[in-house]
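Dissemination and training. As part of the outreach component of the grant, students in the summer workshop were shown how a complex can be specified as a set of sequence lines and then modelled as a single object. The example used during the hands-on session is reproduced here so that future cohorts can follow it. Participants entered these lines:
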Amino acid sequence: MVPTATSVLLEVQGLCYSYGGLKAADQVSFHVDRGEIFGLLGPNGAGKTTTICCVAGVKRPQEGTLRFAGADFTPSRCAEQRRRLGVVPQELALYDGLTARENLQFFAAVAGLRGAAARAAVERALELAGLVERAGDRVSTYSGGMKRRLNLVIGCLHDPELIILDEPTVGVDPQSRNHVFDALEALSGEGRTLLYTTHYMEEAERLCDRVAIMDCGRVIAAGPPPRLAEEAGIPGENLEQVFLKLTGKRLRDT
Ligand SMILES: Nc1ncnc2c1ncn2[C@@H]1O[C@H](COP(=O)(O)OP(=O)(O)OP(=O)(O)O)[C@@H](O)[C@H]1O
Ligand SMILES: [Mg+2]
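and obtained this result:
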């Protein structure tokens, strides 16, 4: 389906990125609509992180184009464009010796927020992360799930138009994972647009409006999960079965 100008926030077209001779992203194309949760799925090494690093401006694509809100987008060269994005990295990036509030104040300042705007953003982030009551405790005393939630809201402090999250639930126990889901759903409920990677297919099925499944650097299917199952000739089946049908490979559960 051809995306319409009003609904599309991000458009990725023919993106390529190689490490030496290895094509980590090979002609990757997809688009993200405003207000949706879009999942970039695939097993380890599929090229998810490489792709979102290109979208976030951390890497410069060797081929392909990006468009954002209908205009050409080259975030690797333009800090102003990068500010339109919120990036939540795969690795936790927190100061363990500081409290959650101090971490948020620090990252709010880094994001250029000052005064009342910074204070409001910090309090909103604490609420979103469900950390109001522990806001004055050092991060070193937090559980893994609490750290994940804090990591997540740090990327959203400056109210970006697109929030990019890389594997936000890796290494999180099931209960904390539910809290991360709640935080993602709350962000989405506020009308924000989320682009998020995972290798947990069932998680994407629960959270995402649309997904793109990657394997070996390529997008092998894209659309709403139920439609992908129909297109693969296995209506009603889950994304794991779709992946198996399309690639002949089982996902490694790592
Ligand atoms: N800096 C690098 N130098 C060389 N090869 C790399 C580098 N980063 C990634 N790769 C390779 O590129 C391919 C895609 O990696 P990438 O990290 O994008 O995949 P991924 O889908 O994010 O995987 P994971 O689920 O493990 O995070 C893999 O084969 C990986 O080994
Ligand atoms: Mg990755």
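The mean pLDDT is 91. Students were then asked to discuss how this feature might be tested experimentally.
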